[in-house]
Design brief:
The structure is a single chain. By secondary structure, the protein is α/β, with parallel strands linked by helices. The chain folds into two domains: 1-101 and 261-355, Isopropylmalate Dehydrogenase, CATH 3.40.718.10; 129-255, Isopropylmalate Dehydrogenase (3-Layer(aba) Sandwich), CATH 3.40.718.10. The protein is built from twelve helices and 14 strands. It has helices spanning 13-31, 44-50, 56-64, 87-98, 122-125, 165-180, 196-209, 222-231, 243-255, 294-306, 311-326, 344-354, and strands spanning 3-9, 36-39, 67-72, 103-109, 129-135, 145-149, 155-159, 185-190, 216-221, 238-241, 264-268, 273-277, 329-330, 340-341. The strands form three sheets. A ten-stranded mixed beta sheet has the order 2-1-3-12-11-4-5-10-8-9, with helices on both faces. Strand 8, helix 7 and strand 9 (216-221) form a beta-alpha-beta unit. Helix 1 crosses helix 11, helix 10 (294-306) runs antiparallel to helix 11 (311-326) and helix 11 crosses helix 12 (344-354). The longest helix has 19 residues, at 13-31. 49% of the residues are buried. Bound molecules: 1,4-dihydronicotinamide adenine dinucleotide and magnesium ion. One of its GO terms (cellular component) is cytosol.
């Protein structure tokens, strides 16, 4: 029995997570799988209840579960707490680190029904279906940082960009394996014309490529990649890149699909993986049944695919989402003239029903 830990968190988290649970239950019913759902506190909700955004009990339940579904955390109410107690810094980052989640998988898939919602011209964005595999626990964000004064009295700040072969290899393998299940193309993005860490990155990925002769490998400089993404996004299948480049490119890729409320993500690499929508707790619309639950529902599909090897179940969710959009149902963020606007819960019910 797959054991799923639910961490609704703050703001719209409490509204969107139950909609993803409906989808998982519908898959369970269709394929005779019984999920066990447990729930724990995280973020501001946890701080309010017990004085810390990542309680010991929550961490223990995370480590014991087979997969984690997170809503979103944070909000203005907790912004002025000391840094170690703020939901993002005190809970989300430590949780990812403690669970060893070194890979962030972010599929940017354009549903045909939402083609008008993309900022790109329909003929350019049509058919876009790519996934960015971002290294999540190395690089600039985790390198040694320092500030110091130099001879002439200037202050200087130093960030260090470090990558080891082992770190590059494990994320690279994941990208090749993912490409094998897709359109068999990996684009490795670096800045090997300038950065030594990128030269190592390119060497390691090139070596790995020989183990995956069935997958087409291309290397691309990050500046070119950022341009190619808006020029012809359909050329990409799997993009693999280091932490900072991935941070920037995933934001760029995400908006091409129409709304932040559509974007699922998976953070994997440890014993247990964490699935969450790419957006935050949206305090401006929380409690109003306006939030788009599809990013969370699509994150549940990723869970089925990546944690439980249930490709059929994942596809059933994705097909249901596509169908509901094709039928013209929209939450407020993706509402277009002539379509039918529905609440968060109604959207969840529709998807579960179509599954
Ligand atoms: P946000 O993603 O929460 O909201 C940005 C805009 O997008 C808002 O107008 C919001 O209404 C809209 N939006 C977001 N998700 C939506 C959905 N599912 N359906 C419809 N509209 C949606 O980002 P913002 O406002 O910068 O941050 C709000 C809080 O969330 C902050 O405390 C921030 O730190 C936190 N946050 C948490 C994340 C996480 O838990 N992983 C990630 C990003 C932000
Ligand atoms: Mg970012």
């Amino acid at each position: 029995m797959p054991d799923v830990l639910l961490l609704p968190g703050d703001g719209i988290g409490a509204e969107i997570v139950p909609e993803a649970v409906k989808a998982l239950k519908a898959v369970g019913k269709r394929y005779q799988i019984r999920f066990r759902f447990r729930e724990a506190l995280i973020g501001g909700a946890a701080y309010d209840a017990c004085g810390h955004p990542l309680p010991e009990e929550t961490l223990r339940l995370c480590e014991e579960s087979d997969a984690i579904l997170l809503g979103a955390i944070g909000g203005p109410k907790w912004d002025n707490l000391p840094v170690e107690l703020r939901p993002e810094m005190g809970a989300l980052l430590p949780l990812r680190k403690k669970l060893g989640l070194y890979a962030n998988i972010r599929p940017a898939l354009l549903f045909p029904a939402l083609i008008e919602a993309s900022p790109l011209k329909p003929e350019i964005v049509s058919g876009m279906d790519l996934v960015v595999v971002r290294e999540l626990t190395g690089g600039l964000y985790f390198g040694t940082k320092k500030r110091e004064f130099v001879d002439n009295g200037d202050e200087q700040a130093i960030d260090t960009l470090v990558y080891r072969t082992g770190e590059i290899e494990r994320i690279g393998r994941l990208a090749f394996q993912m490409a094998r299940k897709r359109r068999k193309k990996v684009t490795s993005v670096d800045k090997a014309n300038v950065l030594e860490s990128s030269r190592l990155w390119r060497d390691v990925i090139t070596g790995l490529g020989r183990e995956y002769p069935d997958v087409q490998l291309e290397h691309m400089y990050v500046d070119n990649c950022s341009m190619q993404l808006v020029r012809r996004p359909t050329q990409f299948d799997v993009i693999v890149t280091e932490n900072t480049f991935g941070d920037i490119l995933t934001d760029e890729a995400s908006i091409l699909t129409g709304s932040i409320g559509m974007l699922a993500s998976a953070s994997i690499g440890g014993k247990v993986a964490l699935y969450e929508p790419a957006h935050g707790s949206a305090p401006d619309i929380a409690g109003q049944q306006k939030a788009n639950p599809l990013a969370t529902i699509l994150s549940a599909a990723l869970m089925l695919r990546l944690s439980f090897g249930m490709e059929e179940g994942a596809q059933a969710i994705e097909a249901a989402v596509r169908q509901v959009l094709d039928e013209g149902y929209r939450t407020a963020d993706i509402m277009q003239p002539g379509k039918r606007q529905v609440t968060t819960a109604a959207m969840g019910d529709l998807v579960a029903d179509r599954i």
